[in-house]
Design a protein that fits this description.
Elements: H1 4-31, H2 34-67, H3 70-83, E1 87-91, H4 107-117, E2 121-124, E3 128-136, E4 142-150, H5 161-214, H6 231-281, H7 286-313, E5 322-325, H8 326-342, E6 347-352, E7 357-360, H9 362-379, E8 385-392, E9 396-402, H10 437-447, E10 451-456, E11 462-469
Helix pairs in contact: 1-5, 2-3, 5-6, 6-7, 7-10, 8-9, 9-10
Amino acid sequence: MRSLFCKLFMSFLLITLLASFTTVMISYWAQVGPYGELKKRVEHNQIQSLTHSLSVIGLAAVKILEIGDKEALIAYLQEVGKQHHSRIVLLQEDNSTFSDHKLPPNAADLVVSSRKSHDIQYNLSETEIIVAIPLFSKNRQIMTLIGSTARIVRPRVFIDNKQEKVWHRLLFFRQRFGLPVIVIVSVAAAGCYLLARSLTAPIRDLRKATQRMSKGDFSARVDLCNRRRDEIADLSRDFNMMAERTQSLIQSQKRLLRDVSHELRSPLTRQNLAVELARQRFSDAEPYLARIEKESGRLSELIDQLLILTRLEGSVDNTPKELVHLHELLNDIVRDANFEAASRDRRIEIQNLNEITMFGSMEMLGRALENVIRNGLRYTTAGSAVEISTSKGKDSATIIVRDHGPGVPQKYLEHIFKPFFRVAESRGRDSGGTGIGLAIAKQAILMHGGGIVARNAEEGGLIIEIHLPLS
């Protein structure tokens, strides 16, 4: 089958044929086979039981009638009808009844036949078994006792004509359509389940491969081409081509970035050496040499950051894990950063520090926390503090870093974790930094299964929240 249309068409055709064949076989077995014989024996026993019951009831009814108590007769017939789950009517010689109950359908002909033959007569309709018994009073008046009950299944007690019609309709529907409907629904459900399983299984494989790609594993592939020959197989083939092309492009990009970064190190080293030699020979050029040295340092830092970001983006959770004490790691970072902050009239305050331990890469977690804290120091106003607080839950820990700077426009909050993204105004290149620190922090946190978000504080400043799983 080269297309899903053929597969769906053949599946529905097979389900229809199988349901029809199964219905015919079960109907044949029910009418002619062992079940049919069993049904006939049960109905014969029903007729015998109803006939015996009516004979006893008829004798009692004649006795009550001879006494002349018609109300007692009506009450008696209603009571025995409820006990036997049947409808019982006593018909007088003039075809009138002793109560408001009407005759069952097709009972009139049965009454005439019973009176003519002076014998018991019965009739099997689609839904009922009807039995008529002739009765003779002392004055030779001919009466007929009629009883009816449902075939096989006993009905509820008939209370009024409306309930009688509803019961007959339900019983008729069950006998005519119940078995075919059950068979068709069962076969269709089984066929649709198998068809749905056949269609969704490759889609689940595609979804798993897509999830792997979203986590950075561009080696994910779907192996469906050899097992299927339909549109889903074509989709999987296109997906594999896309994944292969994407993997090739990303690897080429990372290789280029890595090679450029490595190639820039050598001229930077030679440039720094030349600056030192020039400083020794030309003392009057010190301001210019200092500026060259500063820019070289920034370029060297940028190269280091690029190499780290490239390594993080290419990692698929294969970094060696170790037990990390986050509270101790934070203390060490804050202690080192406070030396730099003091010279710029800034400080770092730890407001709440819980004891937090987790498995992860101490190097990458340290870089992430240090980049976020130093980012806050870079933009907080002079004389203010960068505030750090932690909280620990059952399954995760939260680290909050807040500065008292100008904040970030709302529309840029989602972009500050992108490499080289800079917000205009105060958070520009003049404030220092390489524009990669927060991108490295995000990749390091994502590598540990966590998350990082930024929002503006109501009183001003930027708040960065880091969430890390403890398990």
